[in-house]
Structure formats: C-alpha cells, structure tokens
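Re-run with default settings, no changes from the original entry. Doing this only to confirm the output is reproducible before filing.
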Amino acid sequence: MGKLGIFVDRQTLSSTVQLASLIKFREEAENLEHDAYFVFPKEIKKISGLDALFIRSRTDSMNISYAAARIAELNGVPVIDDSESIRVCSDKINMYFHLMKKEVPMPKTIFMKKGEVTLENLEKVFKIFHRPIILKEPSTSFSARVERVYTKEEFIKVSRRFIKLSDWFVVQEYIESEFDWRIGVLNGEFLYACKYIIPNKTFKIQDSVDGHLVYCDVESIPKDQVPEEVINLGIKAANSIGNGLYGVDIKEGQNGIYVIEVNDNPSLDGGEDKSYPDIYEKIINHLMREKAK
C-alpha cells in the first residue's frame, strides 16, 4: 500500500460537482488501502515523499500543475499527467503535429501567423476550406478561443484577437455534428466512452449563448455500443501523445471519423464514469503499479 497525492487548487474545488468527484476518487483509493489526501500548491514540497500523484488542477505548461509534474518525475514519483503530455496538449499546434506525424485522421488543418493574414492568402484559404472555417488559439481549453467564421472580414477580426495571445493560430475544417465522442484512454488502453451532446445555438461543448453559459450534456456509452473504429482511433490518437491519461474528442463526418483534439487531464466529473464504475480504480492501480516497478 502507498501514499497517493491528489494535486488540487482552490479553483478545482470551487465546483460541488468537481469536489464530489475528487472525494469519490480519494475514497476509492482508501478502499484499496492506500493513504490518499489532497495536495495544494503551497504544499508542493510534499510531492517528493509520495508514492504517486494524480493532478486534478488545470494543466498548462505555464501553470503550477506543470511544476508539480516535474517535481514528481525528478523524484521518481509516478504522475498523471506527466509533464510531456501537459506540454504537448496545452499547445494545440504541438498536439496537431504529433497527430499528423502518426497519420491520425483529423480535419483539414493548417497553421498561420500574423504576417500571413493578408487578403491574398485568405483567397487561397477560402478555396482550400469550405465555409464556415474554425479558428483556434493554440492555448485554448474548454472551447474558449475557438471561433467559427464565414467571411474574410470575420477571419481577420478573430485572427487579430488570437495573434495578441500567440504567434500562431490554427485554421481547421469545420465538421458538423450533433455530438462529440469522448474516448478515455489510460496507458494505451480503452478506459471509457461518452458522448458530449452539443447545445443548441452553438457548435461547441461549452459556450456563451444569449448571455448565458451553456454546457454540453454528457451521455455515458457502454463499450459494446461504441463503434470499434471510434475506440481504435481514440487509442491511436492517445498513443501519438504518450502513455498517460487522455480524453480524445472525435467527430463523425460525412466522409469518416476525425480526431478533433487530445486532452490531457480529461474531465471525470460530468457523468463520464456512469457506465464505467471502475474508472478510478483503474487509474489508482495504474499509478501504484508504476511505483512498484
């Protein structure tokens, strides 16, 4: 048996749903006879004395969660998410390059920088992509800074806003769908599946509609009801990043299935686990086995 830390911050605990999920995880670890407790940023030095660490605060290479992952790795403490997964997944351009390298099916995608947003180049872009076109700022998360544009004027306006935050931005084919598949993958193996039902009047799983923040509905789907090709694509996409814990978003289009992105530190508090009551047990056992090696 060992000591399992759950790295959190105040923002993580601000939602009663998130808190309930974290308490459930801690209780599952204790049922497996491990000592489990929350570790806050001010207690980051305690990580070196743990047997494993599960990061549940927002992951970003500029966030303290990245420092927590590096401290764990430098002290031989198994950690989810590992620092390399955080670094790759927090930068959409880096993530898409990984997917491209492994020939993972994805929407038509190019990258543009400030000096390339000219009317001449946009003529070419609008010939390559059918309207609408999706623009993404590379550090986006929870659907923020993801916009759908129909005209060159909209393209210029949105890209100028994104370029204030990043040197590059993503230009991507729009795949229309009523839901996204989310395939959970742990250490290269299928963990769970669900559908994120996209709210009306938007194309994103989270958005502001008529001044109100709306969220997708989550529908947990038993494995035997998930198309095999969707599961296999989710695993292939996750493996292109690493061997940690990932949530792979997949859309079904008219011409096939496409990976929209790979998320490290995927949400587990929205009902994703309804058909998979052993999610937490599998994560805990994986972390503790890694320490035993």
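The chain has a mean pLDDT of 91. The domain at 89-104+176-264 is CATH 3.30.470.20 (D-amino Acid Aminotransferase; Chain A, domain 1).
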